Amino acid sequence: MFISPAYAQAAGAADPTGGLMGLLPILLMFVVLWFLMIRPQMKRAKEHKALIEALAKGDEVVTQGGMAGRITKVGDNFISVELAPNVEVAVQRQAIATVLPKGTLKAL
To answer: What is the mean pLDDT of each run of 10 residues along the chain (108 residues)?
Structure first.
């Protein structure tokens, strides 16, 4: 008596974008992630690979461990680096971090 009967409301119109607007933030985050993290890392890896392939006897290098020396022997997987007179160390090619300009070791 005091409560009026409830009637179902008409269904609302369908979303014309089809839910694409819900995916837009996720797509935007992926694009930002690609340009800020993935792409620079791929570029750095490509540059390091080119550096490793171009190593030659006589180059002055710094290893990832921080040792500086001159390359005396170049092999397929390992490189001999002379750290001091009569002191040679075998390191993997991938362990070379940087190639120094010629004459840098004399200044150290």
So the answer is: 63 64 88 93 95 94 95 95 94 95 86
- Amino acid 82 reads E
End-to-end CA distance of the chain: 99
User: Is residue 93 a contact partner of residue 52, using CB atoms and an 8 Å limit?
Assistant: yes
Identify the H or E element spanning 44: helix 39-53
C-alpha dihedral (66, 72, 74, 77), degrees to nearest 10? -40
Alpha carbon distance 52, 107 (integer Å): 24
The structure's pTM equals 0.70
